[in-house]
Amino acid sequence: MSLADDLLARNRAYAEQSFGGPRPLRPGRALAVVACMDSRMDMFELLGLENGDAHVLRNAGGVVTDDVIRSLTISQRLLGTTGIVLVHHTDCGMQKLRDDEFGDELESATGARPEFAIESFADPFDDVRRSIARLHASPFLAAKDEIVGFVYDVDTGLLHLVEPA
Amino acid sequence: MSLADDLLARNRAYAEQSFGGPRPLRPGRALAVVACMDSRMDMFELLGLENGDAHVLRNAGGVVTDDVIRSLTISQRLLGTTGIVLVHHTDCGMQKLRDDEFGDELESATGARPEFAIESFADPFDDVRRSIARLHASPFLAAKDEIVGFVYDVDTGLLHLVEPA
Prior knowledge:
Number of helices of chain A: 5
CATH class of chain A: Alpha Beta
Order of helices and strands of chain A: HEHEHEHHEE
CATH architecture of chain A: 3-Layer(aba) Sandwich
CATH topology of chain A: Beta-carbonic Anhydrase, Chain A
Oligomer: homodimer
Shape of chain A: globular
Strand content of chain A: 15-25%
Number of strands of chain A: 5
Helix content of chain A: 25-40%
Distance between the termini of chain A: 51 Å
Number of domains of chain A: 1
Strand order of the largest sheet of chain A: 2-1-3-4-5
């Protein structure tokens, strides 16, 4: 079976058995979650949120990039969210990279070097703090009073609060 | 209760009752999903995937931006994914915006105008096709043979396959 047919069949089962009916466009808890793309994090489940509660933004690392600022600006100014929840995690792929080395690898594999930063980091707690600083530095966000950051432990399923430096 | 304490309490319940134990860093199905941040889409559930199966990348619209290319490059070259699944949806906030008007609103509210594109669109099917074209145009992705695009209907829970234009 093709990937498309497989996913369509799985989705039909979801629509018939689990879909809870339409929900409003605006997130019920007025939250936006910014998390790493890691496959081991089911964001609604591990935060104890319901479908419809929060926008979910995810990228490699859960880093606050321009695309995250773009998305949060729309989330806040168009769709009324006010709280921001950052989630990095232990055993992250971004800890296994270095920006310069990965740039070299890409250049030798493809002949091109990306203009974007790779955004690797050594410590997820430090990188949550860096991401929080980037949120505060953006002129575009409308609400910055409720920002919390966590590191998720992939071995225990537990979140750890990131305290300010 | 503060937002942090509320989420920590919900997460402790998850870790005690639902966490299924450690899983490998590499996604089990070698997939990366790129989807809109919309609060009504629980990606693993609506695609019938298990926790651990796929990287999940999300932003406003599910649009392929530089940050998505960055994340997919790492997903493929560091963590071995090969398939890419794009998911836009009906009733998207991005259909309610226009780049130029929203830029004007931001400038008058903040005094600054973003350097990034807002990435609004009128039709989610067309924008999935535009995003697929951006994947094919990137020099950095290692695997482009298995790319599928869907539009999720938020009223029925059903995915619709996006056929090439």
